């Protein structure tokens, strides 16, 4: 369920999405309010679940993770036990940055970040050794054109 946000809440959220390491004083200055009311609003936004967590965004290439694959998975298995094993296999692998269950011809899409094609093959071999998969298509991203965690906050 969507939380009701006023203009000040939206300004705070935009400031936090731009840089959550900013001081409370800097955020308050951007919002045009004093620190205590801004802090109280941030606390309420956390309690309401609007702000899930604060984290650092790392550069994958600086860490040697130069290959990003989008993995399309089709399965002929739809039983609860298979889904449980598949979910566990995904959650146990740090290489899987995102996993989505889809409507349509493809059942799942994964975003996988690894060092290179050899590392992807190691990931792939481990995955198919744990769960039976009907078809896997791996697409190598040649260039990341846009990547953001910032959500569009309606006015």
From TrEMBL:
InterPro entries: ArsR-like_HTH, AsnC-type_HTH_dom, Dimeric_a/b-barrel, Tscrpt_reg_AsnC-like, Tscrpt_reg_AsnC/Lrp_C, WH-like_DNA-bd_sf, WH_DNA-bd_sf
Gene3D superfamilies, alphabetized: 3.30.70.920, Winged helix-like DNA-binding domain superfamily/Winged helix DNA-binding domain
Gene Ontology terms, MF aspect: sequence-specific DNA binding
The keyword Acyltransferase appears for this protein: no
GO biological process, one term: response to amino acid
Family matches, as Pfam families: AsnC_trans_reg (PF01037), HTH_24 (PF13412)
Keyword Transcription regulation set for record: yes
Name the UniProt record assigns to this protein: Transcriptional regulator
Higher taxonomy: Bacteria, Pseudomonadati, Pseudomonadota, Alphaproteobacteria, Rhodobacterales
